[in-house]
Design goal:
alpha+beta, Nucleotide Exchange Factor Grpe, Chain A, domain 2, 4 helices, 15% strand, elongated
């Protein structure tokens, strides 16, 4: 019998199982740092994803706001185009209105021969103005009103014994607006104010 070999074998096996520097022990020690850093890596990844989500949400909100502004701007443009589409047509009709008014002013209402003609011209003039009003046209007739450079065009200034300065003395040609936008200014004569009544020396 060789009891020395058996004892040696047992001793070697015991040393292998209890040796802290064995490969199994090394694997256990190596697993500990990884286990410690894994939650930190996950948290960093969560933070990155949260930042990406916030950025995408902000971009989505900005895009939605831009689309809403674009839609509103397009609606305003369409409304404006519809509102003033008749501007050139109205401007072309105004000389016709002027001619009808001149014809009415020239007709003698006491003349039995031309009175029916005058009534027809007056009816035509009224009908035309009614149609223009239905489409947003308004008359600018500033007789005895203050001069407004936004609506009136002064062609002359004269002294006036009663009206203060910058008052409309006479309307030479009526003005017109379309939906509150000026199509043609009223041509007016404006007062310079009460003339100086003081005599010289």
């Amino acid at each position: 019998m060789k009891p020395g070999r058996g004892e040696a074998a047992v001793t070697t096996e015991d040393q292998t199982s209890t040796d802290p520097e064995s490969p199994a022990g090394a694997r256990d020690d190596a697993a500990d740092p990884a286990a410690a850093t894994e939650p930190e890596a996950l948290q960093r990844r969560i933070d990155e994803l949260q930042q990406a989500l916030d950025s995408a949400r902000d971009q989505s909100l900005r895009t939605a706001a831009e689309m809403q502004n674009l839609r509103r701007r397009a609606e305003r443009d369409v409304e404006t185009a519809h509102k003033y589409a008749l501007e050139k047509f109205v401007a072309a009709l105004l000389p016709v209105v002027d001619n009808l008014e001149r014809a009415l002013a020239a007709i003698d209402p006491d003349n039995e021969v031309v009175r029916p003609l005058g009534e027809g011209v007056e009816l035509t003039h009224k009908s035309l103005l009614d149609v223009l009003r239905q489409h947003g046209v308004q008359i600018v007739d500033p007789a005895a009103q203050g001069f407004d450079p936004a609506l009136h065009q002064a062609v002359a200034m004269v002294p006036h014994p009663e009206l203060p300065a910058n008052q409309v003395v006479e309307v030479l040609q009526k003005g017109y607006t379309l939906n509150e936008r000026l199509v043609r200014p009223a041509m007016v004569v404006v007062s310079q104010g009460v003339p100086d009544a003081g005599g010289q020396g």
